[in-house]
From TrEMBL:
Pfam families for this protein: DUF1993
Gene3D superfamilies xrefs: dinb family like domain
PANTHER family in the cross-refs: BLL2446 PROTEIN, DUF1993 DOMAIN-CONTAINING PROTEIN
Name of the molecule in the record: DUF1993 domain-containing protein
UniProt cross-references to SUPFAM superfamilies, sorted A to Z: DinB/YfiT-like putative metalloenzymes
Length: 168
């Protein structure tokens, strides 16, 4: 039995966002219990030239919503990247989850060989659906989810591997 492209996208992203939402809540609780300003976690970076926690969640959101939209041939919702609190990051995750849940399975399945173009300010990349998902979109999503997790661990939030995996 073949795996459908939808099964490699929406459910995977939904599970990742469930885990991210939970570890953000643990981070908030840890900060509150230990007198740590929320901003100390929200603006934390693993290295000076890396984006802070807020941006990592925003980029994971972008990776997921654009993957689903590009594969389905639909528009992704605009999100302005202004989140600066745990509540706003949770709202961003919820909005992304709502969008993902709105994408019909039949709009993604069968698009393994569809042309996908990724435009950046400086260049354009051409992919086929499967290659885009497996070689770019999923690695990009996991990079930002892992970096967000790593930032919080580095700042002392008591997270473990099962938190990252979503408590399977």
């Amino acid at each position: 039995m073949a795996t459908e492209l939808y099964d490699l996208t929406v459910p995977v992203f939904l599970r990742g966002f469930k885990a991210m939402a939970a570890f953000l809540e643990k981070a908030r609780a840890h900060a509150d219990a230990n007198g740590i300003a929320h901003d100390d976690l929200l603006t934390a970076r693993l290295y000076d030239d890396m984006a802070p926690l807020t941006s990592q969640i925003q980029r994971a959101s972008d990776a997921a919503k654009f993957a689903a939209a590009r594969l389905a041939g639909i528009e992704a919702p605009a999100m302005p990247d202004t989140e600066a609190s745990f509540d706003e990051l949770q709202a961003r995750i919820a909005a992304t989850v709502d969008f993902l849940n709105s994408v019909p399975r039949e709009s993604i399945d069968g698009r393994e060989d569809a042309d996908v173009e990724l435009k950046t300010p400086s260049r354009s990349f051409q992919f086929k659906g499967r290659g885009y998902l497996l070689g770019f979109a999923l690695p990009n999503f996991y990079f930002h989810a892992t970096t967000a997790y790593g930032i919080l661990r580095h700042k002392g939030v008591p997270l473990g591997k099962m938190d990252y995996l979503g408590g399977i």
